[in-house]
Amino acid sequence: MTCWIILFRGVGGDTLLPVQPLKAALVEEGFKSVVTYINTGNVVLTSNDAPKRIVKRVATIALEHFGFSKHIMIVSRAEWARLITQNPFPLAVSEPAKLHAYVLERAPDPGAVKALEQKAIGPEQFEIRGRVLYYYTPQGVSNARLHPKIEKTLKVAATARNWNTVLKLAHLAKQMAGDAK
Asked: Structural domain boundaries of the chain?
């Protein structure tokens, strides 16, 4: 069994995805070791299925039970561990609410990355490594100018988690994984 971290895009505000009913629906559909974390669309589970099949099954459950039809990202526990170790802003971990990891649906095209670099003015910093965009906002995300331009400019679906959540999901995956890789 492989341990997976499932991230729902766009949960919060007007879009709710109740975690306890979601957990119950996932367990009912046969997923194992299901753990949810806060109401922003985070699930850790184990499965023998391929990632695309897991996403398809989870998307069907989310749509049928909760009317949720936005993007869902999936990252293995091993990939999540690499996401943490590859953080290009190690000094920013002391300000975990200002450091974010965006999981991208796919690696963006180089031209789109260049366009985002041209829009990155001010103290904000970002770096893309594979399917992850690391984003440091020393002035806080609520004052960040680049934040609302990231998905639009890269032309790829993404979902962001602050570093507190990144570390908590890693901890949950480690706790519940057991024999999962």
From this structure: 2-76, 81-166
